[in-house]
Design brief:
alpha+beta; 5-stranded mixed beta sheet
Amino acid sequence: MSITHWPVEERPRERLLRAGAAALSDAELLAIFLRVGVKGQSAVDLARHLIKHFGGLNRLFGASRDEIASINGMGDAKYAQLQAVFEMTRRALKEHLQDGASLSSPQAVKDYLTLSLGPLQHEVFVVLFLDARNRLLAAEEMFRGTLTQTSVYPREVAKRALTFNAAAAILAHNHPSGNPEPSQADRLLTRTLKEALALVDVQVLDHIIIAGRQTRSLAEHGLI
């Protein structure tokens, strides 16, 4: 049944206007974005199918153009819109960090990293370089591929820190496996980078691991 045939108080857009976006489910929010469904499916039905097919919003936003186009009712226009929404959200969070939210709002850091790294199917290592007031100077992908102590070069990270005249850094990488727990290699790498950056007076504030929508902060677990 089309959403237009639903009782007004049950329609996602009307519920959002009445109760706020937080009151809606993922599928209802996505349905507002989609606007229309396909034959035999309302926009909410299509949204539920998309979320189930891709395994969540993170994976949906990280899906390729071809993967999106393979779903009935989707195509280049919807793919472009999804990417635009995703990028606007990521940039808004980045602006928040540039205003000094890195320590005053650790959740903002996690949200930014979850958006940036959560959907990826390959492992990447990112460094957030901060100034003395903990405002974001730059967020840079330093390395890609399976991370080991030997594949991440402390000298390169230190050089970039000096380039930005950074006072502190937050390390981050993703676990495409979905398990956010830090490995022994993660802990060793953190210690190595902390020691290397200390030589150029840059403090490592945290190392955050992203696994889909899950996060683990090594600092919060006393591992920094």
